[in-house]
Amino acid sequence: MATEVLINKKGFLTSPQCAGEGDRKDTLFTLPPEVEYYFRESNLFFKGMPPSDPDCEAGIPSLSIIYPQENVKIFIPRNSESGVSSILAKAHHTSQEAVLYWYLDDKYLKTSTSGEKNRVCAIQPLPGKHRLTVIDNKGLRSEGSLYVLEKE
After folding, report:
1. Using CA atoms, how far apart are residues 116 and 94, in angstroms rounded to an integer?
2. Which of 42, 97, 146, 148 sits a CA distance of 20 to 30 A from 21?
3. What is the DSSP string of 70-114?
4. Per-residue pLDDT, 152
């Protein structure tokens, strides 16, 4: 999808409210964050959106949980050592500088810092329904439900 954006002199994404001299309009190829994640992995030349100007919120950054997908049912096998295995939850943010905070059922799990190539978090949910939440350092959030199946 083509999106018209405003880029300032420093190369940051900006908004019309913060427009200044030397800013330029550009049309960029944009994808939803979960699609961008996979596209970026397989296409070395894909750049995606430039980062937002920290002094002016452009309103374009996006955050999405890649795995587990919404309302997925998961069976987590037990390992022989500790008895508990984990799954790797994965998220994608269009800004590589964003810091992500992970929560399972409103309990803090971990912080993914900027610059981490893979935004992942190991979770060990017990059987039953759970809510995974990822929030960035500017309050943008993505949430999803998952259901962990019991061993029969």
Report:
1. 13
2. 97
3. TTEEEE-PPPTTTS---EEEEEEES-TT--EEEEETTEEEEEEPT
4. 61
CB 26 within 8 A of CB 5: yes
> For residue 46, how many C-alpha atoms fall within 13 Å in the half-sphere facing its CB?
14
Of 9-23, 47-61, 82-96, minimum mean pLDDT range: 47-61
Contact 44, 76 (CB under 8 A): no
CA of residue 20 relative to chain centroid, distance? 30
As a whole number of angstroms, the distance between CA 106 and CA 128 comes to 15
Tokens 């994608």 belong to which residue?
92
Q: What is the pTM of this model?
A: 0.66
Supply the pLDDT for residue 140.
Answer: 84
